[in-house]
Amino acid sequence: MIGSLYLPGKTWLHLAPAGLKLAVLAFSSSALMWVHSPLLLSVACAQVCFLMYWAGASLRQVWQQMRPLIWMLLLLGGLSAWSQGVLQASEMVLRLLTLVLAALLVSMTTPLTQMMQVVVWLLVPFQRLGWVDADRVALSVGLTLRFIPELGVQWQEIREAQLARGMTPSPLTMGVPMLLRTLRRADEIAEAIDARG
Amino acid sequence: MKTKDIVLIALFTALIIALGLVPPIPMPLVPVPLTLQTFGVMLVGLILGPARGGLVLLLYVTIALLGLPVLPGGRAGLAVLAGPTAGFLLGMIPGAVVTGWLAIQLSGNERSKAGSRSPDDSQSIVRWQIARGAFAAIVGGIVLVYAIGVPWLALVTKMGLTKACWAMAVFVPGDLLKALVAAVVAQRIRRLNMV
Question: Considering the entire predicted model, what is its pTM?
Protein backbone atom coordinates (compact mmCIF):
# COMPACT_ATOMS: atom_id res chain seq x y z
CA MET A 1 0.00 0.00 0.00
CA ILE A 2 2.80 2.37 0.81
CA GLY A 3 6.35 2.05 -0.44
CA SER A 4 9.39 4.23 0.06
CA LEU A 5 11.00 6.21 -2.74
CA TYR A 6 14.15 4.13 -2.45
CA LEU A 7 15.43 2.44 -5.60
CA PRO A 8 17.83 -0.43 -4.87
CA GLY A 9 21.16 -0.14 -6.66
CA LYS A 10 24.90 -0.53 -6.36
CA THR A 11 26.35 2.76 -7.61
CA TRP A 12 28.60 4.81 -5.35
CA LEU A 13 25.67 7.12 -4.81
CA HIS A 14 23.87 4.23 -3.13
CA LEU A 15 26.92 3.18 -1.15
CA ALA A 16 27.89 6.63 0.17
CA PRO A 17 26.88 7.20 3.81
CA ALA A 18 23.49 8.86 4.22
CA GLY A 19 24.83 11.59 6.49
CA LEU A 20 27.42 12.61 3.88
CA LYS A 21 24.82 12.73 1.12
CA LEU A 22 22.53 14.90 3.20
CA ALA A 23 25.39 17.23 4.14
CA VAL A 24 26.45 17.59 0.48
CA LEU A 25 22.84 18.19 -0.49
CA ALA A 26 22.39 20.89 2.14
CA PHE A 27 25.66 22.58 1.15
CA SER A 28 25.10 22.51 -2.61
CA SER A 29 21.47 23.63 -2.24
CA SER A 30 22.52 26.71 -0.29
CA ALA A 31 25.37 27.36 -2.74
CA LEU A 32 22.86 27.31 -5.60
CA MET A 33 21.06 30.29 -4.07
CA TRP A 34 24.02 32.49 -5.05
CA VAL A 35 24.15 31.31 -8.67
CA HIS A 36 22.26 33.69 -10.92
CA SER A 37 23.35 32.74 -14.42
CA PRO A 38 20.73 30.63 -16.22
CA LEU A 39 23.52 28.93 -18.17
CA LEU A 40 25.32 27.69 -15.02
CA LEU A 41 22.00 26.67 -13.50
CA SER A 42 21.08 24.60 -16.54
CA VAL A 43 24.48 22.90 -16.38
CA ALA A 44 23.83 22.02 -12.73
CA CYS A 45 20.35 20.81 -13.61
CA ALA A 46 21.69 18.62 -16.42
CA GLN A 47 24.30 17.17 -14.07
CA VAL A 48 21.65 16.18 -11.55
CA CYS A 49 19.53 14.64 -14.32
CA PHE A 50 22.53 12.65 -15.52
CA LEU A 51 23.29 11.38 -12.00
CA MET A 52 19.67 10.40 -11.64
CA TYR A 53 19.70 8.43 -14.89
CA TRP A 54 22.96 6.83 -13.84
CA ALA A 55 21.55 5.84 -10.43
CA GLY A 56 18.82 3.94 -12.27
CA ALA A 57 15.78 6.17 -11.75
CA SER A 58 12.95 5.38 -14.13
CA LEU A 59 11.34 8.24 -15.99
CA ARG A 60 7.94 7.14 -14.71
CA GLN A 61 8.86 7.40 -11.04
CA VAL A 62 10.52 10.78 -11.46
CA TRP A 63 7.51 12.05 -13.38
CA GLN A 64 5.14 10.82 -10.70
CA GLN A 65 7.01 12.83 -8.07
CA MET A 66 7.46 15.89 -10.24
CA ARG A 67 4.02 16.13 -11.83
CA PRO A 68 2.35 18.34 -9.21
CA LEU A 69 5.37 20.61 -9.19
CA ILE A 70 5.69 20.93 -12.97
CA TRP A 71 2.31 22.64 -13.26
CA MET A 72 3.15 24.97 -10.44
CA LEU A 73 6.53 25.78 -12.02
CA LEU A 74 4.90 26.50 -15.38
CA LEU A 75 2.37 28.80 -13.74
CA LEU A 76 4.95 30.59 -11.61
CA GLY A 77 7.38 30.79 -14.52
CA GLY A 78 4.71 32.33 -16.72
CA LEU A 79 3.76 34.82 -14.02
CA SER A 80 7.33 35.81 -13.35
CA ALA A 81 8.23 36.03 -17.06
CA TRP A 82 5.32 38.41 -17.49
CA SER A 83 6.21 40.60 -14.51
CA GLN A 84 10.01 40.39 -14.28
CA GLY A 85 11.26 39.25 -17.68
CA VAL A 86 12.19 35.93 -19.22
CA LEU A 87 15.73 35.87 -17.80
CA GLN A 88 14.53 36.15 -14.20
CA ALA A 89 11.83 33.56 -14.81
CA SER A 90 14.19 31.00 -16.33
CA GLU A 91 16.62 31.51 -13.45
CA MET A 92 13.91 30.88 -10.87
CA VAL A 93 12.48 27.82 -12.65
CA LEU A 94 15.88 26.25 -13.30
CA ARG A 95 17.03 26.76 -9.73
CA LEU A 96 13.88 25.23 -8.25
CA LEU A 97 14.03 22.31 -10.67
CA THR A 98 17.67 21.61 -9.81
CA LEU A 99 17.04 21.80 -6.06
CA VAL A 100 14.05 19.50 -6.22
CA LEU A 101 15.73 16.95 -8.48
CA ALA A 102 18.87 16.88 -6.32
CA ALA A 103 16.82 16.24 -3.20
CA LEU A 104 14.84 13.55 -5.02
CA LEU A 105 18.12 11.93 -6.04
CA VAL A 106 19.21 11.62 -2.41
CA SER A 107 15.82 10.20 -1.41
CA MET A 108 15.98 7.66 -4.21
CA THR A 109 19.44 6.38 -3.39
CA THR A 110 19.13 6.18 0.39
CA PRO A 111 17.17 3.41 2.13
CA LEU A 112 14.67 4.39 4.81
CA THR A 113 16.61 2.68 7.60
CA GLN A 114 19.70 4.80 6.84
CA MET A 115 17.62 7.99 6.80
CA MET A 116 16.16 6.96 10.15
CA GLN A 117 19.67 6.44 11.51
CA VAL A 118 20.59 9.98 10.53
CA VAL A 119 17.50 11.25 12.35
CA VAL A 120 18.42 9.28 15.47
CA TRP A 121 22.00 10.58 15.20
CA LEU A 122 20.70 14.15 14.97
CA LEU A 123 18.62 13.49 18.09
CA VAL A 124 21.61 12.36 20.18
CA PRO A 125 22.53 15.83 21.50
CA PHE A 126 18.91 16.38 22.53
CA GLN A 127 18.86 13.00 24.21
CA ARG A 128 21.92 14.00 26.28
CA LEU A 129 19.94 17.03 27.42
CA GLY A 130 17.09 14.70 28.34
CA TRP A 131 14.60 16.30 25.94
CA VAL A 132 13.88 13.28 23.81
CA ASP A 133 14.22 9.54 23.98
CA ALA A 134 15.44 8.18 20.63
CA ASP A 135 13.89 4.75 21.31
CA ARG A 136 10.49 6.31 21.78
CA VAL A 137 10.85 8.27 18.57
CA ALA A 138 11.70 5.04 16.76
CA LEU A 139 8.71 3.33 18.42
CA SER A 140 6.34 6.05 17.30
CA VAL A 141 7.61 5.96 13.70
CA GLY A 142 7.23 2.17 13.64
CA LEU A 143 3.72 2.35 15.13
CA THR A 144 2.69 5.00 12.61
CA LEU A 145 3.83 2.97 9.62
CA ARG A 146 2.17 -0.14 11.02
CA PHE A 147 -1.16 1.57 11.50
CA ILE A 148 -1.56 3.37 8.18
CA PRO A 149 -3.10 0.30 6.44
CA GLU A 150 -5.10 -0.58 9.60
CA LEU A 151 -6.76 2.83 9.60
CA GLY A 152 -7.44 2.52 5.88
CA VAL A 153 -9.36 -0.68 6.61
CA GLN A 154 -11.18 1.05 9.47
CA TRP A 155 -12.24 3.84 7.10
CA GLN A 156 -13.57 1.27 4.64
CA GLU A 157 -15.54 -0.51 7.40
CA ILE A 158 -17.22 2.66 8.61
CA ARG A 159 -18.05 3.71 5.07
CA GLU A 160 -19.57 0.34 4.21
CA ALA A 161 -21.59 0.28 7.44
CA GLN A 162 -22.99 3.73 6.62
CA LEU A 163 -23.75 2.87 3.01
CA ALA A 164 -25.57 -0.25 4.19
CA ARG A 165 -27.81 2.00 6.28
CA GLY A 166 -28.38 4.29 3.30
CA MET A 167 -26.32 7.21 4.58
CA THR A 168 -24.26 9.37 2.28
CA PRO A 169 -20.82 9.88 3.81
CA SER A 170 -19.94 13.46 4.77
CA PRO A 171 -16.92 14.88 6.60
CA LEU A 172 -18.91 14.91 9.84
CA THR A 173 -20.38 11.42 9.72
CA MET A 174 -17.03 9.93 8.74
CA GLY A 175 -14.83 12.05 10.98
CA VAL A 176 -16.51 11.38 14.32
CA PRO A 177 -16.56 7.55 14.25
CA MET A 178 -13.10 7.48 12.69
CA LEU A 179 -11.63 9.55 15.51
CA LEU A 180 -13.53 7.75 18.25
CA ARG A 181 -12.35 4.36 17.07
CA THR A 182 -8.79 5.63 16.77
CA LEU A 183 -8.88 6.97 20.33
CA ARG A 184 -10.23 3.65 21.67
CA ARG A 185 -7.55 1.76 19.79
CA ALA A 186 -4.85 4.01 21.23
CA ASP A 187 -6.07 3.04 24.72
CA GLU A 188 -5.89 -0.65 23.94
CA ILE A 189 -2.47 -0.46 22.30
CA ALA A 190 -1.02 1.59 25.16
CA GLU A 191 -2.30 -1.01 27.65
CA ALA A 192 -0.78 -3.80 25.59
CA ILE A 193 2.60 -2.05 25.38
CA ASP A 194 2.62 -1.32 29.12
CA ALA A 195 1.65 -4.89 29.93
CA ARG A 196 4.68 -6.16 28.06
CA GLY A 197 6.96 -3.56 29.59
CA MET B 1 5.59 11.31 28.48
CA LYS B 2 3.47 8.24 29.01
CA THR B 3 3.08 5.28 26.67
CA LYS B 4 -0.45 6.40 25.89
CA ASP B 5 0.75 9.74 24.61
CA ILE B 6 3.26 8.08 22.30
CA VAL B 7 0.59 5.71 20.98
CA LEU B 8 -1.83 8.59 20.48
CA ILE B 9 0.78 10.60 18.59
CA ALA B 10 1.66 7.63 16.37
CA LEU B 11 -1.98 6.75 15.69
CA PHE B 12 -3.00 10.28 14.81
CA THR B 13 -0.03 10.60 12.49
CA ALA B 14 -1.10 7.35 10.84
CA LEU B 15 -4.64 8.75 10.67
CA ILE B 16 -3.52 11.87 8.83
CA ILE B 17 -1.53 9.76 6.38
CA ALA B 18 -4.31 7.19 5.91
CA LEU B 19 -6.89 9.90 5.28
CA GLY B 20 -4.62 11.35 2.62
CA LEU B 21 -4.67 8.01 0.80
CA VAL B 22 -8.43 7.35 0.79
CA PRO B 23 -10.51 9.11 -1.86
CA PRO B 24 -11.27 12.70 -0.78
CA ILE B 25 -14.76 13.56 0.46
CA PRO B 26 -16.38 16.31 -1.58
CA MET B 27 -17.24 19.30 0.58
CA PRO B 28 -20.56 21.08 0.31
CA LEU B 29 -20.51 24.60 -1.22
CA VAL B 30 -16.81 24.78 -2.14
CA PRO B 31 -15.38 23.04 -5.21
CA VAL B 32 -12.14 22.17 -3.40
CA PRO B 33 -12.25 18.63 -1.94
CA LEU B 34 -11.41 18.04 1.71
CA THR B 35 -7.67 17.45 1.71
CA LEU B 36 -5.72 17.10 4.88
CA GLN B 37 -3.00 19.66 4.53
CA THR B 38 -4.73 22.02 6.93
CA PHE B 39 -7.65 19.93 8.16
CA GLY B 40 -5.26 17.58 9.98
CA VAL B 41 -3.54 20.52 11.65
CA MET B 42 -6.78 21.89 13.06
CA LEU B 43 -8.26 18.57 14.14
CA VAL B 44 -5.11 17.28 15.80
CA GLY B 45 -4.54 20.60 17.57
CA LEU B 46 -8.12 20.74 18.85
CA ILE B 47 -8.29 17.12 20.00
CA LEU B 48 -4.79 16.39 21.29
CA GLY B 49 -3.78 19.84 22.50
CA PRO B 50 -0.63 21.85 21.75
CA ALA B 51 2.19 19.50 22.82
CA ARG B 52 0.94 16.24 21.39
CA GLY B 53 -0.62 17.99 18.39
CA GLY B 54 2.69 19.62 17.51
CA LEU B 55 4.49 16.29 17.86
CA VAL B 56 2.00 14.60 15.53
CA LEU B 57 2.73 17.13 12.80
CA LEU B 58 6.46 16.96 13.51
CA LEU B 59 6.33 13.20 13.06
CA TYR B 60 4.24 13.57 9.91
CA VAL B 61 6.69 16.01 8.34
CA THR B 62 9.66 13.85 9.39
CA ILE B 63 8.15 10.75 7.80
CA ALA B 64 7.44 12.69 4.61
CA LEU B 65 10.99 14.02 4.45
CA LEU B 66 12.40 10.55 5.07
CA GLY B 67 10.99 9.57 1.71
CA LEU B 68 7.64 7.86 2.35
CA PRO B 69 5.03 9.17 -0.07
CA VAL B 70 2.58 10.39 2.55
CA LEU B 71 1.85 13.87 1.29
CA PRO B 72 -1.20 14.51 -0.91
CA GLY B 73 -0.47 13.32 -4.45
CA GLY B 74 2.07 10.77 -3.21
CA ARG B 75 4.91 13.25 -3.00
CA ALA B 76 7.71 12.80 -0.52
CA GLY B 77 11.36 13.16 0.21
CA LEU B 78 13.66 16.07 0.72
CA ALA B 79 12.55 17.40 -2.65
CA VAL B 80 9.46 18.78 -0.92
CA LEU B 81 11.63 20.99 1.24
CA ALA B 82 13.20 22.57 -1.83
CA GLY B 83 9.82 23.15 -3.48
CA PRO B 84 7.81 26.37 -3.32
CA THR B 85 5.17 25.04 -0.90
CA ALA B 86 7.57 23.86 1.82
CA GLY B 87 6.56 26.78 4.02
CA PHE B 88 3.00 25.45 4.23
CA LEU B 89 4.31 22.03 5.25
CA LEU B 90 6.63 23.37 7.95
CA GLY B 91 4.04 25.91 9.08
CA MET B 92 1.72 23.05 9.96
CA ILE B 93 3.83 22.21 13.02
CA PRO B 94 3.48 25.57 14.84
CA GLY B 95 -0.04 25.74 13.39
CA ALA B 96 -1.13 22.70 15.38
CA VAL B 97 0.62 23.98 18.50
CA VAL B 98 -1.14 27.36 18.32
CA THR B 99 -4.53 25.79 17.54
CA GLY B 100 -4.24 23.53 20.58
CA TRP B 101 -2.92 26.25 22.85
CA LEU B 102 -5.61 28.73 21.84
CA ALA B 103 -8.37 26.14 22.27
CA ILE B 104 -7.19 25.49 25.83
CA GLN B 105 -6.88 29.21 26.62
CA LEU B 106 -10.42 29.86 25.40
CA SER B 107 -12.03 26.88 27.10
CA GLY B 108 -10.32 27.89 30.36
CA ASN B 109 -12.58 30.95 30.37
CA GLU B 110 -15.60 28.79 29.75
CA ARG B 111 -15.05 26.52 32.74
CA SER B 112 -15.08 29.45 35.14
CA LYS B 113 -18.27 30.81 33.63
CA ALA B 114 -20.03 27.44 33.25
CA GLY B 115 -21.07 27.36 36.90
CA SER B 116 -23.37 30.33 36.47
CA ARG B 117 -25.19 28.83 33.50
CA SER B 118 -28.37 26.86 33.91
CA PRO B 119 -28.33 23.40 32.34
CA ASP B 120 -31.13 24.12 29.87
CA ASP B 121 -29.12 26.42 27.63
CA SER B 122 -26.76 23.59 26.66
CA GLN B 123 -27.61 24.34 23.04
CA SER B 124 -25.89 27.69 23.26
CA ILE B 125 -22.97 26.17 25.18
CA VAL B 126 -22.43 23.74 22.32
CA ARG B 127 -22.58 26.60 19.85
CA TRP B 128 -20.03 28.55 21.83
CA GLN B 129 -17.74 25.56 22.07
CA ILE B 130 -17.86 25.13 18.31
CA ALA B 131 -17.30 28.85 17.71
CA ARG B 132 -14.28 28.83 20.01
CA GLY B 133 -12.86 25.73 18.33
CA ALA B 134 -13.37 27.27 14.93
CA PHE B 135 -11.66 30.47 16.04
CA ALA B 136 -8.65 28.54 17.37
CA ALA B 137 -8.54 26.50 14.16
CA ILE B 138 -8.68 29.62 12.00
CA VAL B 139 -5.89 31.40 13.88
CA GLY B 140 -3.61 28.36 14.17
CA GLY B 141 -4.54 26.34 11.13
CA ILE B 142 -5.07 29.13 8.61
CA VAL B 143 -3.58 32.46 9.69
CA LEU B 144 -0.35 31.03 11.07
CA VAL B 145 0.15 28.42 8.33
CA TYR B 146 -0.37 31.07 5.65
CA ALA B 147 1.82 33.54 7.53
CA ILE B 148 4.70 31.10 7.11
CA GLY B 149 3.74 29.55 3.77
CA VAL B 150 2.99 32.69 1.75
CA PRO B 151 6.26 34.60 2.45
CA TRP B 152 8.16 31.35 1.81
CA LEU B 153 6.41 30.98 -1.53
CA ALA B 154 7.15 34.62 -2.35
CA LEU B 155 10.80 34.21 -1.39
CA VAL B 156 11.42 30.97 -3.29
CA THR B 157 9.69 32.12 -6.45
CA LYS B 158 10.60 35.83 -6.15
CA MET B 159 7.03 36.64 -7.16
CA GLY B 160 6.45 39.35 -4.57
CA LEU B 161 4.36 39.15 -1.44
CA THR B 162 1.16 40.66 -2.79
CA LYS B 163 1.08 38.33 -5.77
CA ALA B 164 1.74 35.32 -3.55
CA CYS B 165 -1.18 36.37 -1.35
CA TRP B 166 -3.50 36.55 -4.35
CA ALA B 167 -2.34 33.17 -5.62
CA MET B 168 -3.21 31.55 -2.31
CA ALA B 169 -6.48 33.38 -1.72
CA VAL B 170 -8.28 30.68 -3.74
CA PHE B 171 -7.78 28.21 -0.91
CA VAL B 172 -9.07 30.41 1.90
CA PRO B 173 -12.84 29.70 1.57
CA GLY B 174 -12.21 25.94 1.60
CA ASP B 175 -9.95 26.28 4.61
CA LEU B 176 -12.53 28.32 6.50
CA LEU B 177 -15.08 25.57 5.94
CA LYS B 178 -12.54 22.98 7.10
CA ALA B 179 -12.01 24.96 10.30
CA LEU B 180 -15.74 24.84 10.97
CA VAL B 181 -15.97 21.10 10.28
CA ALA B 182 -12.91 20.45 12.45
CA ALA B 183 -14.49 22.45 15.30
CA VAL B 184 -17.79 20.53 15.07
CA VAL B 185 -16.02 17.16 14.95
CA ALA B 186 -13.72 18.09 17.84
CA GLN B 187 -16.66 19.30 19.96
CA ARG B 188 -18.53 16.01 19.45
CA ILE B 189 -15.44 13.97 20.21
CA ARG B 190 -14.76 15.90 23.38
CA ARG B 191 -18.35 15.40 24.55
CA LEU B 192 -18.19 11.66 23.92
CA ASN B 193 -14.67 10.90 25.01
CA MET B 194 -12.33 12.53 27.44
CA VAL B 195 -8.82 12.59 25.99
Answer: 0.75
